[in-house]
Amino acid sequence: MLSAVFATLVAATAIAVHAQSGVANCDREYTVQENDFCDKISAAQNVSTFQLAEVNKAVIDPLCDNLHEGEVICLGVEGQDCTTVHVIAEGEFCFEIAGNAGISLDTLLANNPNVNSDCSNIGVGEVLCTANVTIPYTPSTAA
Ligand SMILES: *[C@@H]1O[C@H](CO)[C@@H](O)[C@H](O)[C@H]1NC(C)=O
Ligand SMILES: *[C@@H]1O[C@H](CO)[C@@H](O)[C@H](O)[C@H]1NC(C)=O
């Protein structure tokens, strides 16, 4: 039992050491380019606005104005990586985005915890996870 715990710790440490982003169990890493901003990266790399912010909350501030060219960030953590996304266009609402993706509104809202229940706080260019399964995001411990 104890050796199994130890083996897990060693494995986790090894992954963390090799991950340039510093995020444990990172599934996908990305090197920030000149003139990148969060939603641009999200749209180009198939990662939701929520997931990009959540995974990198230790290094990217809430306004996403502290990205550095050459910085390596993590796009998704193993087992919690939504790669099916939709970039919000002018005039779109959650109901139709969900419908077009063939998913329920509940699934859309569950996978995008940054969106409020009446979907009134989304904006053009933001990226939503439109996966047809619920991504088991670890509940945030941040206040
Ligand atoms: C993003 O998803 C689209 C649609 O599935 C795909 O064509 C594209 O290659 C993906 N891009 C990346 C960087 O994964
Ligand atoms: C969910 O999406 C995946 C990949 O996009 C697809 O292969 C699968 O058939 C879908 N499942 C359902 C129940 O729609």
UniProtKB/TrEMBL annotation:
Molecular function via GO: chitin binding
InterPro entries in alphabetical order: LysM, LysM1-like, LysM_dom_sf
Pfam families for the chain: LysM (PF01476)
Keywords attached to this entry: Chitin-binding, Signal, Virulence
Span of domain LysM: 28-75, 84-130
Annotated signal sequence range: 1-19
SUPFAM superfamilies registered for this protein in UniProt: LysM domain
Annotated Gene3D superfamilies: LysM domain (3.10.350.10)
SMART domains attached to this UniProt entry: LysM (SM00257)
Protein name: LysM domain-containing protein
Origin organism lineage: Eukaryota, Fungi, Dikarya, Basidiomycota, Agaricomycotina
